[in-house]
Amino acid sequence: MGWRGGSELIAAALALSLGVGGAAMAGPPERVVSINLCTDQFALLLAAPGQLVSVTHVAADPRVSAMAAAAEGLQLNRAHAEEVHALAPDLVLAGPWTSGYTVALLRRLGIAVAVIPDVRGLDDVPEALRATGAALGRDAAATAMADTYAADLAALRTAADAGRQPRAAIHNPNNYTSGAGSMADQILTLAGLANVAAEVGIEGGGWLALESMVMLAPDLVISAEPYPGASRAEEVLRHPAAQALAGPGRRAALADSDWVCGTPHVLRAATRLRDATATAAP
Amino acid sequence: MRDHPVLMSVLLALVIALFAASLLVGPAGIAPMQALSALLRGDGTAEALVMREIRLPRALLAVMIGASLGLAGAAMQGYLRNPLAEPGLIGVSGSAALGAVIALQTGLAASFALGLPLAALTGAALAVGLLLALAGPRGGSLTLILAGIAVSALAGALTALVLNLSPNPFAAAEIVFWMMGSLVDRSMTHVWLALPLMAVGWVLLAGLGRGLDALTLGEDAAETLGIPLGRLRLMLVAGTACVVGAGTAVAGAIGFVGLVVPHILRPFVGARPSALLPASALGGAVMLLAADVAVRLVLPDRDLKLGVVTALVGAPLFLHLIYRTRAEGL
Amino acid sequence: MLTLRSLSVARGPCTVLDDITLHISAGEFVGLIGPNGAGKTTLMRAALGLLPHGGQSSLAALPAQTRARAVAWMPQAREIAWPVSVETLIALGRLPHLATGARPAPVDRAAIDAAIAGMGLEGFRTRAANQLSGGEQARVLIARVLAQDTPLILADEPAAGLDPAHQITLMQAFAAEAARGRSVVASLHDLGLAARHCTRIIALHRGRIAADGPPAQVLNAALLAEVFHITAWVANTPYGPVCQPLEVLG
Q1: From the CB coordinates, do chains A and C have 3 or more pairs under 8 Å?
Q2: What is the count of structural domains for chain A?
Q3: Do chains B and A touch (3 or more CB pairs under 8 A)?
């Protein structure tokens, strides 16, 4: 969930490392394994048929993976060095938040590891696309996709309503929210919404106490669909006070897999959110 | 109230003051007068919503669970004649948490209203029963604590296992909640869920006073003073299971309240087990309210677990008690 | 006061008490003697109904509440679990006379005060009972038994651990109770005390009654040799019967 979290590792993440460990590569890699949900998404978008061998098991979960359908038929891994090695890949795609031990171990085993840079905002998506494309030897496809994305983004920005902005709160399990500058915040802005977490000075990821959220009285609460099986973290999403916010004149919206990773799908999320609020705005 | 009017009045005043503080402390920063009027008004405003749906249940649960733990601690100590007996430390709360987790993850909790607290009650009852069987009537400290460690460890491991097997990725991270307890974002639903069983437990435990007094002289003497020991034991097990089970089901396992409170209050009631029961109930409410206000003041948004605060106060005291018990010869 | 008919207790395959039949009347102070393991404690606990037993005991047949007003029991283990005050502890003896939640009435206060006075505990009233010396604790527990104010008292080695003065005080207190028409049964190891103060002595040997009668009759050389394997100097003196153990028989 690349764009969530800190920033210091970004420099290290940008160090794209290819062909380390001696396995000389003439052409594009033929057996690619991705061990991070968001690199899974990029790989599924860009890889040539048959090139991608395995993605993580969560990539097949439609709750968090926008490309779950595409992941069907691929081997699913749990990002353990041993199982990855057994798949005999000639390239492993990892995210900047992938365990450093796993990456180092894979490189010691002579497997090339490409660390795809973090996507922290809407404008970072093309770079990540191009980096993935370069690693996969699919530069042309990546560039085309990046260009389309940039054009769509620009169009959406132009269309964004500068008038009255409905106020929205992102309410994740454990009262986790996304504040100013986060990807989710940018999606809200793109959809013509104002983020209440930003009003109270939350930057990036953070916690917004339930009662603080109630006091902010957002017009819209955006939550993810709960998992099966009970959890206290998600129970707060159904707290009577949170549900009262979804009363008359207010709406709840679902944040789905399009929100999870910083891929071109974020534009789809923004468009859907914009259309939903445009019809329902008080 | 009758025997120790000053102590009981002070405790009651503390409960009321801390209950008010619990209602007034929170990240939303509502001015006190405004908060209280919103609580009474109960219209649909954001203030009223915060006061009635978030802070009121939290304060109520702190009172209910604190009183339950204090009462259960005093009762268990009186029965076992051992100041180290405490539902959290000897694995009763942990077993209740296991019951609750099983009910939640199997869907039992969702299938009927009291499924969750009843499952927690079952876990607690099994643990109390097992501990009484292992530690024997006199509750030797060493046996009690060793048996408690084993029951705690087993309950903790099984709780973790059940949570890890859950299809819900958040559930696995919640072992901390079940082991340490928290009152954050509980609702009136939880109050109504816990109250019936707790009330039953309070009645059962409150009725133990006479028997616990007599047990000061040992089992034989108590029995010849006309105390039906079998019934006493049954009431203790059932009462403890009810209050600890219901409390743990909604707030997780909160340790040390039942240890610290009776220990502090015992000198004030002349060490009489019967007088200690109501005093510990009030004292438990005071301690848990204070702890729950403290977690909000120290780390407002972070859901610092209640058990962290109670353990910080209770664990050193526990060590001190072990040292003293050892000095007196186990 | 107490009637036992063919009372027997078995622990596993061993018979601990065998066919005990006896009757205790009002005004008797019975000394229960016998070597270690003779069954003294078992006899009293079985008579109280605290042990599973065969045969009949008039006490064991009573409902618990009635029994608590009929007999007071002082166990051998001197247990005082909490640092309650001496007065509070002695007041526990009044529990069978109080309804649940009732406060002590003047009659209860009087019984408590009499017990405190009887055991010479006036100066100890507010002291923490479990922090007293062993002998003091024993006196407090005896006072608790006296406060229960029952027609019958059963006491298991009440004199153990007391200094001579307090041993004599205790025996005199029990004798005074008997003189008031109550009955006391106390197991004793000190044959001298038993000889001097009891009105009747029951000697137990291997779970059976070896002898039962007035001290002068029971404490004879043959019985002491058979039951205790000792010789003793037994005499009738102006002070009453005296029994002084002398040697262990080879």
Answers
A1: no
A2: 2
A3: yes
